[in-house]
Amino acid sequence: MALNFPANPQLNDTYTSNGVTWEFDGVAWNVVPLERNIFTTFNADTGSTTPDTTNDTLIIAGGTDISTAISGDTITVNFTGQAGGATNAITTVTTDDGTFTATGESTLQILGRTNISTELTTDSNELHIDLDAFSIDFLSDVDTSSTPPTSGQVLKWNGSNWAPGADATTGGAGTDADTLDGFDSTYYLDYNNFSNTPAIASLTDFSIGNELTAAGNGAISYDNTTGVFRYTPPTAAGLGALTAEVNDLSSAVTWANVPDANITETSVTQHESALSITESQISDLGSYLTSVSASDLNSISIDALSDVDTTTTAPTDGQVLAWDAANSVFAPSDTGGGGDVNQNAFSTITVLGSSNIVADSTTDTLNFVQGNGIVLSTDPATDTITITSNINPGASTFSQLTDVQAANGLTIDRIYKQAIVRLTTGAIGFTAYTFNSHYSGSNPTIYALSGTTIAFDLNGAPGHPTEIQTGAGVALGAEVYHVSPEGVVRDQTDPSFDADRGTLYWDIPESTSGTFRYQCIAHAPMVGTIVVKRFSTL
User: Fold this and answer.
1) What is the count of structural domains for the chain?
2) What is the 3-state secondary structure (H, E, C) of 260-279?
3) Domain membership flag for residue 493
4) I need a labelling partner for 300 at 20 to 30 A (CA). Which of 131, 173, 278, 482 fits?
5) Does residue 240 form part of some domain?
6) Separation of alpha carbons 417 and 419, rounded Å
7) Judgement on whether residues 533 and 412 belong to the same structural domain of the protein
8) Dihedral (C-alpha) 517, 521, 526, 528: value to the nearest 10 degrees?
9) 472-509 pLDDT per residue, tens
C-alpha cells in the first residue's frame, strides 16, 4: 500500500498509516519506534527506584542545604548551605570591649570611630587602620573652643584645662625652659637666680687706649665691642669749669647695643656692686693694661673664658654653645635647652577600654608591640606605621579547598553548571571521538533534548579542541561555552575560545531541533552528529 506523506512537511511533523507513525527529520521520513529509549531505573548513592506505572512520577527533592526549583523544562538544584564547608575561617573576634561570634555567613564590619578610618587595599588582604588628622582641641584636657586662640598665644593650665593665654605672663616659649622650675614673675628679675649665665667681666677684661686730643671738660669713653677705655683730657677752659669730681661713669660709659627696655631700675640696682668702678680701680686698670701689648689683646678669643671649652670639639657653621654640666661646648642648634620652636606634641595617648599612656619626659618613647596575628612595619622616610594581619585568610582558589580532591574529578569546570547529561570524551588517535560513558563506537551519533544543557567532559581527550556546529559546519554562538579546570569561562564567540580540556557546555534553546555536529577543529576526521529533539513535540 502506497504511503501518502504530506507535501512540504516541516521538521518533526508526524504521519500515521496502518498503525505506524512516521516523523520528518528535515530530510526524510523515519519510523517512530513504538518503544523509545528512556531511563527506567534511577540509582542514588543510597538506594534506587523504578517506575511502578506507565505514568509514574519521579520526585527530585532537596536534602540538607539543597533546594530544587523548576522553570519551564529546567530543574535547578541549588546549594543553600555555607560555601566551602569547614574551611579555615575566623568565627570569633574578641576586642577590648566585647566579643563577636559568627553565625552562618555573618559579616564582620571593621568601622572607624572618631578620628579613626579603615581602608581595605584593592586586590589584597591588607586592612589599614589609620589615625585621621585632628586639632589639639580633640585632647580631653585642652579647651580651645571656649576661647579660640590668637596669634602668639600659648597653652596655659587654668585649673581644669589647657587653654589659650598670653605668652608674656606665665611660661610660654622661653629661651631656656629648663631653668623655669615652676617659678615666675619677680623671681626671674634677680640675676642671682639664673643658671648658665656668662661670667661677670673683671678688670683684666678691659684695656686703656691712646689718649685723645683735649676737648671741653674732658671725658672717659668705652667701646663695648673691644673693651677699650679712652681718655680725653680737658682743655684749660674746660678744666676751669669743673667744680667737683664725679666718681662714676654714668656720663662717660656708652652702653651700646643694649635695648632700653632691658635696662630697668631693678636690674641696675642688682648689678651695682659688680659694675661699680672707683677712681683707684681705674688707676689700677691703667697700670695693668699698659703692660699688655696690642698683639695680646687681639689674640683673646671666647675660649679664654674659664667655663667655655671650644678646644675639645671645634665649632662648625650653625652650632651654638650648650652647657654639658661642666662647660659650655659647641653643639647643633637643636640640642640646646629652652622651648622648642614648635612645641605641639601629644603627651597622652588614649586607648578605649584601657589605661592612658602618659609621657614621662620630654624625650619619652611610645612603643608599638605586635600582638597575635599582627605584623608591624615602619617606613621612616614617610613616617608611616603599617599594621598587617599575618593570619592565613584561607583558600583563594577552588582547588585549594582542603575537601576538594581533583584526583576524584571534582574541579570547578565539572560543577560549574548542572547538565542533563555529562559525556565523557575520549579519542582514538586523530581519527575519532569516543563517548564510552553513554555511547559505543567511534564518532557516535548523540541525541539531545531542547530546553536542556548537555556537557562534554574533555579531560579525557586533551589536544583536541572541540566545537559545536550546525549540520553545515558553522560554529554556534554564545549558547556554547567552555569552562577550564581553573574556572575561566569563554563562549564560542570569544577569539580566545579553545576547548581542549575542562568542560564544554551547550545550553540548547527550547525551540531548537534538527541535526548538528561536534567537530575537532584541529583534526577533520573527528566529527559526529548530534540530533536534537524538541521536547514540546514529543
Assistant:
1) 2
2) HHHCCHHHHHHCHHHHCCCH
3) yes
4) 278
5) yes
6) 6
7) yes
8) 0
9) 999 999 999 999 988 899 999 998 898 888 999 999 99
For residues 530 and 515, the answer to whether their CB atoms sit within 8 Å is: yes
CA gap 535, 510 in Å, rounded:
7
Please name the residues in contact with 425: beta carbons below 8 A apart, sequence gap of 6 or more.
Answer: 433, 434, 435, 456, 457, 458, 459, 460, 461, 464, 466
Residue 389: exposed, middle, or buried by beta-carbon count in 10 A (0-12, 13-18, 19+)? middle
pLDDT band at 172 (very low <50, low <70, confident <90, very high): very low
User: Which pLDDT tens digit goes with each residue over 375-414?
Assistant: 888 998 988 989 888 777 666 666 666 666 555 567 888 8
Predicted confidence (pLDDT) per residue in 227-280, tens digit: 788 888 888 776 666 554 444 445 444 444 445 555 555 555 555 544 455 555
Which of 286, 304, 322 lies at the terminal end of a domain, its last residue?
A: 304
Residues 301, 302, 308, 312: is their CA dihedral positive or negative?
negative
Of 432, 435, 428, nearest to 455 (Cα)? Answer: 435
3-state secondary structure of 157: strand
Q: Which one, of 127, 126, 108, lies nearest residue 118 by Cα?
A: 127
* Domain range for 474: 400-537
Cβ-contact 419, 449 below 8 angstroms:
no
Neighbours of 125 (CB within 10 A): 13
Alpha carbon distance 363, 368 (integer Å): 16
Q: How far apart are CA 141 and CA 287, in angstroms?
A: 65
- Is 412 among the domain residues? yes
Query: How are beta strands 514-520 and 446-449 bridged, if at all?
Result: unpaired
Count other Cβ atoms within 10 Å, centred on residue 378: 11
| Whole-prediction pTM | 0.32
* 208, 210, 230, 289 from 220: Cα distances, Å: 10, 11, 6, 15
**146/160 Cα distance (integer angstroms):** 13
DSSP 5: P
At residue 130, what are phi and psi to the nearest 5 degrees?
-115, 145
